[in-house]
User: Which sequence fits this backbone?
């Protein structure tokens, strides 16, 4: 079965610093991979998705992620953190047959001035 | 273009009662999926409806049910509420399904069972 592991339940960075949120997946078939962001008391907003086209995927708000099959990873990065990036981030993989998303446990990003 | 609308935003119910949550997808979207989000279990898939038919179902007890209407609006119902049903319930819509166009999520309904 498909699964996702997000390393680090909390990540703290300073404003202007690099953001790196880690995601490793397990999939028996070429996966579709997603990153979502959730602000307090809100739903999930899609940041970016990988659907087997380009391995480097650019998303909204300056975020990007690189699909590395050899490492089964799909880490999310942003060159310079902004205070407004403070939120919870979820990595997700589609299951076989694209019936549903399987989510990781989330990483809370804290940004300090 | 209006997004996915979930009503109500907040709900407090008593153990043993039943509850109905509503989701209006983006206009033209025919697929509606429901997810439960809790601190302990994270985000878990409940079910998906497409053209008024349940197409996929997650691993939840029969107390959780749903339906979809001809205008693609969907409702989910939870009967005989338990304390553990307290969660944020998220609805997601897509044109035809996850593979083709991905999801757009609503803001959720936060259900508290007391």
Assistant:
């Amino acid at each position: 079965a498909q699964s996702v592991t997000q390393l680090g339940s909390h990540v703290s960075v300073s404003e202007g610093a690099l953001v790196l949120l880690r995601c490793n997946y397990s999939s028996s078939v070429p996966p579709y991979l997603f990153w979502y962001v959730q602000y307090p008391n809100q739903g999930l907003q899609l940041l970016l998705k990988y659907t087997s086209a380009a391995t480097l995927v650019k998303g909204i708000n300056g975020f990007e992620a690189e699909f590395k099959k050899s490492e089964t990873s799909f880490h999310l990065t942003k060159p310079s953190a902004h205070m407004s990036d403070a939120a919870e981030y979820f990595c997700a993989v589609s299951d076989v047959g694209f019936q549903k998303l399987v989510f990781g446990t989330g990483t809370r990003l804290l940004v300090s001035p | 273009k209006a997004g996915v609308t979930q009503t109500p935003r907040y709900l407090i119910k008593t153990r043993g009662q039943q509850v109905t949550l509503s989701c209006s997808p983006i206009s033209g979207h025919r697929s509606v999926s429901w997810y439960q989000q809790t601190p302990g279990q994270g985000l878990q898939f409940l079910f998906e409806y497409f053209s008024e038919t349940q197409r996929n179902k997650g691993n939840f007890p029969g107390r959780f049910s749903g339906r979809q209407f001809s205008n693609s609006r969907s409702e989910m119902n939870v009967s005989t509420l338990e304390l553990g049903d307290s969660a944020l319930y998220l609805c997601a819509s897509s044109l035809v399904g996850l593979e083709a166009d991905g999801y757009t999520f609503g803001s959720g309904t936060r259900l508290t069972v007391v």
In short: The first strand of chain A starts at residue 3 and ends at 7.
